[in-house]
Amino acid sequence: MPLVNIKDHIPPFWLPNGHLQTIYPALFRKISGVVYQRERIVTPDQDFLDLDWSFSSGKSEKLVILSHGLEGNSNKQYIVGMVKLLNQNGFDCLAWNFRSCSGEMNRTSGFYHSGATDDLDLIVEKGISKGYTEIHLMGFSLGGNLTLKYLGEKSRKRHVSIKKAVVFSVPMDLKACSLSIIKRENRVYMHRFLNTLRPKVTEKSRLFPDRISLEKDHLVKTLYDFDDIYTAPLHGFSDASHYYEQCSSQFFVQNIEIPTLIVNADNDPIVPGSSLPLDLIATLENVHLELSSHGGHCGFRPAHVADGVYWSERKALNFIQ
Q1: What is the DSSP pairing of strand 4-6 with strand 162-168?
Q2: For 206-231, how does the pLDDT look when each residue is reduced to its tens digit (9 = 90+)?
Q3: N or C terminus of the chain with fewer C-beta within 10 Å?
Q4: Which CATH fold would you assign to the domain 4-172+254-320?
């Protein structure tokens, strides 16, 4: 489908750039009224995943599965805001936490990564087992890349109940985004990620000294370094470039067989618009990309917030309805 440059998202005048449009919602947005019911499931490798369910007021046959971003969790504002609106409109929600992101360290030596679709497949199977006849997938940032890769891998083999997908602020070219975040103006985001990733690796090195060594930890200055030294070898990749090549969703979207909406902002400081495969997506029948001039990274706060709902949340609801 053709790329659409959308103009209907208008941010507040006091959030004039992508950095402020990213940071303000992450730090200051508060959402009430969402109550999760946590369920823990055991994975085939004897690890666990923590699932947070939130249900609409009536009996629903419609489920939305939400995948968060790098070092996020089910309580991030972009997840909870979406869950609240979906519940109000008759959708049950399943917001799952990646390994090591639910507040308790996972049990295996590996963590999660941008292409770990086996875990998402388990979550989808869980939704199917509950009897939902209409399942939609939503992903944010890393979770968006994971969602697109999963749908591309499944293609026509997906379960018939999976109907649509919506993803926001997606790093479809992982290497380009990893290199972009190294830029001086973006390092605040990189250091925030590293500040939570590195303690996890330190803890893992004590639990699995035969699998994880801190010998090269002094070389980790960037997110690329972290992926090169830790993420890639822990998950079966030769180095960061190999990991990015194997897991970037731009190499999987051509196989997606359900209506899928990608929404990114051109002023996203973490995912530059230039990194998106615009020419490829323009040739695809089922995948539609809307590129907003504003929004930042997983921000999308409108100038006028009605009922506490953000522009991205209305966009997603309208698409799956």
Answers
A1: unpaired
A2: 999 999 999 999 999 999 999 999 99
A3: C
A4: Rossmann fold (3.40.50)
